[in-house]
Write a structure and sequence with these properties.
This protein is an alpha+beta fold. Helix content is 37%, strand content 15%. The chain is built from 21 helices and 20 strands. The protein has a seven-stranded antiparallel β-sheet with strand order 1-19-18-15-14-9-8. A seven-stranded antiparallel β-sheet has the order 7-4-3-11-10-2-20, with helices on one face. It is globular. The chain starts with a helix and ends with a strand. It binds 6-diazenyl-5-OXO-L-norleucine. Residues 384-385, 403, 405, 424, 427, 456-458, 477-479, 482 line the site of 6-diazenyl-5-OXO-L-norleucine.
């Protein structure tokens, strides 16, 4: 008996020793390990989509080819966020070290004026007609235009456009097993999706829902993708699909017209670049706020010894919250679409500006947000989402975040197309000074204007080692919490020595200046950590909630690609 116990204890010890041997330098030993691939890796929130990306890479496609195929596959297999009716940002770096950013953010339709979501009593419209639900909530979708631009300029051209669309079309035609998480999620979307005929019929099966593992087919979406496979992305903006969108919009008081679709343009932007402790950070410029806020926070935090504080100490969370509070105040006032307003990018990214901002952080006390305004220094200068990352065998990386905004976007499916539309108009300051669905207060620079792109928080990011080689790339979903997830994952790798999976899984906080409250997650925060932070004057969101969900890929010392999808959500990386 005694011997049995001893053997069991020894076996336990061996297991523990093995786990600890794997443990990242200062992380917890029991996180899942990343997926390994000698040649290439795709990390997305749907394993089927990751596999489709790998198949494209094995057929000779590069990371851009794979990213397009993954993006289209997610529009089918992850309809709550993957899309062709939304928009986003694609950031890439090729093996020669050249970086490019593609902005395919939605544009406000021509009919969308500053007060389009405000009623005659100067109150924000709620429900149908608002910026969050129904036909008027959508901006002009950019996804296909963005993928088309990426294909024309940066794909391998060993594969044709149709080769990249076909896997998604077949997935829509033949269906896939409904994941458990989706059957659960849909229960809370019954009422919203149930308001719109095609959404009700397709996504919640007339209100009866789907059971786990049931095969879910989308014949209308398959037909739409078949047209796009044959005629290219222009079919969406000029062809039958465009006509169907414009007709359905007109029939339901929507704002998007055929002209709006014809005029949509994806744009190349110059990525913004900064450094953190000698590593290069390449990230997304406006109209996303993500890159600027990320770099501002990292610049402020560079002045503190986070490594010594430890990844989950109250002292570290305090500093992250204080830096975020200051950078989000800048976001509120100083950022918007650079084609419509001046964003003081260089001033905000300046290390001396960060030093000034940093010097106002009290190490022992939270600064109330009402005492913080957008930085004057910077002001003086002369302006449900999903993320996936691909690294190919040459070392080209594509890191892409795109979205419908809310889960299932505006909840509207355009009649006869299977296309769910975004509710991205809510990312504008529909009424400057009034919080949007994420509680973000935003200013005039982000007011609605025809043809303008709403300010985003999406933060696709690439990190290089001090010698200039690719180290890791990542991004997240979760509105403004995206930025917090990326900040803390970057710190977890650089300061705390974690691998990409541990860095993404580690508990995190979020502070967005207003409302003046810290988000913390339901697990991973001890009551004493919270008590220390409360003692410092931090206020907390009443109900703890997860802070975003991230996805990334890291290259290890031997060149192995390590893929990681956040343990907070579904999905899986696939490598070979
Ligand atoms: O662009 C943005 O910042 C938002 N539309 C992102 C929304 C989002 O991440 C929702 N995800 N869960």
């Amino acid at each position: 008996m005694l011997r049995h116990h001893l053997r069991a204890a020894l076996a336990g010890w061996t297991l523990a020793a093995l786990l600890f041997a794997y443990a990242p330098a200062s992380g917890r030993p029991f996180w899942p390990v990343p997926v390994r691939g000698k040649h290439a890796m795709v990390a997305s929130q749907q394993e089927i989509a990751s596999q489709i990306g790998i198949d494209i890479l094995k057929r000779g496609g590069n990371a851009v080819d794979a990213a397009i195929a993954v993006g289209l596959a997610l529009a089918v297999a992850y309809p709550q966020a993957g899309n062709i009716g939304g928009g986003g940002f694609m950031l890439m770096r090729n093996a020669k070290g050249e970086s490019h950013a593609i902005d395919y953010r939605e544009m406000a339709p021509k009919a969308a004026r500053r007060d389009v979501f405000v009623d005659s009593n100067k109150k924000l419209i709620q429900g149908e007609g608002s910026s969050t639900i129904g036909y008027r909530a959508s901006g002009v979708p950019g996804t296909l235009a963005g993928f088309d631009l990426a294909f024309r300029k940066y794909a391998s051209h060993k594969l044709k456009w149709a080769d990249l669309v076909r896997p998604a079309r077949l997935l829509a035609q033949n269906g896939y097993a409904q994941p458990y998480s989706v059957t659960q999620l849909l229960k809370s979307y019954d009422d919203k999706l149930g308001k719109y005929e095609d959404s009700k019929r397709i996504f919640i099966r007339g209100g009866n829902g789907y059971s786990e593992g049931e095969i879910f087919k989308q014949p209308e979406l398959a037909a739409t993708l078949a047209r796009i496979e044959k005629a290219g992305a222009k079919e969406f903006y000029n062809g039958r699909t465009a006509q169907l969108i414009a007709d359905d919009m007109k029939a339901h008081g929507g704002l998007i017209t055929l002209d709006d679709l014809k005029n949509y343009q994806a744009k190349e932007r110059t990525p913004i670049t900064g450094t953190y402790r000698g590593n290069t950070i390449i990230t997304m410029p406006p109209p996303s706020s993500g890159g600027i806020v990320l770099l501002e926070v990292l610049n402020m935090l560079e002045g503190f010894d986070l490594k010594t504080l430890g990844y989950n100490s109250a002292a570290k969370y305090h500093l992250v919250a204080e830096a975020e509070r200051r950078a989000f105040a800048d976001r509120a006032d100083l950022m918007g679409d650079p084609d419509f307003t001046t964003v003081p990018v260089q001033a905000l990214l300046d290390k001396t500006y960060a030093a000034t901002r940093r010097s106002s952080i009290n190490l022992k006390h939270a600064t109330p947000s009402k005492e913080i305004r957008a930085g004057q220094e910077a002001g003086r200068e002369s302006n449900d989402t999903t993320h996936f990352t691909v690294v190919d065998k040459e070392g080209m990386v594509v890191t892409n975040t795109y979205t419908l905004n809310d889960l299932y976007g505006s909840q509207v499916t355009i009649k006869g197309t299977g296309i769910l539309m975004n509710d991205e108009m809510d990312d504008f300051a529909a009424q400057p000074g009034t919080p949007n669905m994420f509680g973000l207060i935003q200013g005039e620079k982000n007011a609605v204007q025809p043809g303008k792109r709403p300010l985003s928080s999406m933060t696709p990011t690439i990190v290089l080692k001090p010698d200039g080689t690719l180290w890791f790339a990542l991004g997240a979903r979760g509105g403004p919490r995206i930025i917090s997830a990326v900040i803390q994952a970057v710190i977890n790798v650089i300061d705390h020595g974690m691998d990409i999976q541990a860095a993404i899984d580690a508990p995190r906080i979020h502070h967005q200046w207003m409302p003046d409250e810290m988000w913390y997650e339901p697990s991973g925060f001890s009551p004493d950590t919270i008590a220390v932070l409360a003692e410092m004057g931090h206020k907390f969101k009443k109900k703890p909630e997860n802070v975003a969900s991230a996805t990334g890929i890291m290259i290890d010392d031997k060149g192995v690609r390590l893929g990681a999808v956040d343990s907070r959500s579904d999905g899986r990386a696939v490598g070979y």
